[in-house]
Each structure stands twice: as C-alpha cells, then as structure tokens.
Fold:
Amino acid sequence: MEKHNFYAGPAILPQSAIDATIEALKDFAETGISLAAISHRSKEFVGVMAETENLFKELLSIPEGYSVIFMGGGASTQFAMIPFNLMKKKAAYLNTGTWATKAIKEAKMFGDVVEIRGRDFTYIPKDIEIPDDVDYFHITTNNTIYGTEIREDMDCKVPLIADMSSDIFSRKVDISKYAIIYGGAQKNLAPAGLTFAIVKNDILGKVDHKIPTMLNYQTHIDKESMFNTPPVIPVFTALQTLKWIKKMGGVDAMQKRNVEKSDLLYAEIERNSIFRTTVAEENRSIMNVCFVMIDEYKEFETEFLQLAIEKGMMGLKGHRSVGGFRASLYNALEKKSVEALVALMKEFESQKA
Structure:
C-alpha cells in the first residue's frame, strides 16, 4: 500500500535524498567507510559541507555579507542564542503560537521583552507597531501547531529575526530584510539533528556581555561550522535535498507546488459539510493545514483518523494541544497525497452527512 506522509516533523523528505543517504551509510564517496563513521575533517566531508553551504546560498539568493552556518541543538537552542548574541537591553517578539511563546520565555532571561500578540493564535495581527528602541524584532514565520503563516517579508526598522524552521525553501524570501534566519532542519531539509542559521555578519559583536563559546554565532562562522563535530548524516541529507530542490526548479517551483497543494485541500475543507478550519483565510499556512470537524460530527474524529491510516495516510492527527487534524504539506509531499486525502474527506462526508 502506498503511504502518504503528513507528519509535521520529522517529516517527509525527497526519496532521492533518502536513497542517497542510505548508500552513503554503506559507503561514503567511495571511501569504503560509512557516512556514519567518516571523519568530519576528511576532505570528502569537508567538500559536502562546502557544497551544502554554497547551494543554500544559491537557492535562497543570499546576498554578500551573510554567513550560513550549521549546528546542532535545534531551534530551541537558537531561542537562547538570539538574545545572547543580540540583546543589550530590550527586544520585541511577535507571539503567534507555541514556539514563539517558548522563544519569548528564553529571551526574558536576558532582558526586557515587548510581546506583541492578537486575541488568539488563529490569525496574524495586522498593523504591528514595533518599538524603535528595541535591539531586534523576532517572528516565527510558520506556526505548525495552529496553521498560520507570515508569507511576506515585512519591512522593519530594527533588525528582523525569523524562525523559519517549517517553511524554509517553501517560498521565495528576501534575505536582505532579515538580520538572522534560523531553524531546525527536520521539516523541509533533513532529518532531526541539524540546525541552520543565516546570519548578517555586521549584526554581531555589539553586546557587552560575554557569550559562551558554543552559543556564539561568531564561533561557528569563523570555523565554517566545524568548531565541533557537526551532525554529519543530516548535513549530507540536507545536501541531497537541496540538489533535489534545484533539479525540480528551485524555490520558485517549490512555492508553486505548495500553493497548488494547499489550495486543493483548503477548497475541500470549505466545500465539505463536515470539516472546517479556524484559521483566518489571509493567514492560512501552505505548510501545515489545520482543520477540525464541526461540532455535530466531532464524535467521528477517531473513526476518520483510523480510516485514514487504513488507506495509508499517516500523521493527520492534530497537535495534542489543539486537537483536530493537521496535514503537513512540505516540499517533498506529492500532490497525489493531497488528492488522496481530499477523496477520503469526500467519501467520509457521503457516509456521515
């Protein structure tokens, strides 16, 4: 039976990236040594790291003056690294969901935080007023749990920081509008264990306090992501994913592909008499489509999920904090998987409505 992977993360990756990684685990670059056992200082892996960085820059059109670094620790470690490296006294954060809330919690250990948020997490607040006296403004561009997304690059008078863990490479981004973009790679790029950061070089070195070596962005920039042993296997897989993105037509092609998939699913949610979404239309994520059953059919949620599993659709259960359903439509998910889900939703409606 064909499987349809709707998991929110770790998530679907291109089959070519998985296959290449499997072969490299057996014999990396014809060295006769497994990728899992190769030295990160070997010329073969140093070449992988350099190629990954270069392709990252090429696909995202990263301008001069920025560095791309790869680390461990996930986006959760970045929640502390950002204020450690950038906050002198005060920062502003847009709170749009669970992960933004966690980032704010960490930032409050380093100084004052101006928290900007709406009445709930079903939409992105409009006409945001960012204080002029903050050291930076932090946003989470895609909210995997609530299904909202900031899909335009905002103008900002202070340094703009973005957690793009779950939508990097899914749409075009004007990198020049950001001081730092960071994220965990386990959505659109690689297996869990790899963290990326795109850092504007001149944003660093302005705080008075000391920064622990491993939490200092400059450490990783100076050592080209090799200060300590990098997550070798995820870096290799990331390179294969980037090659796949380029072969498929680049980020423009990914954006077109993702909009088509999300439009198809949102259209069915709106048409179907059993399902609905609570997310404001203008803020709907193209990566994580969150939806629920209307109240009179909620008793059938478990039955729907079980039927989906029987038809090979995995990972559709909504996050435990919000319930309902969540279909993650990351780059590597084929349109046919969305079509299968839509067909199931129509079938279920014909049985219950």
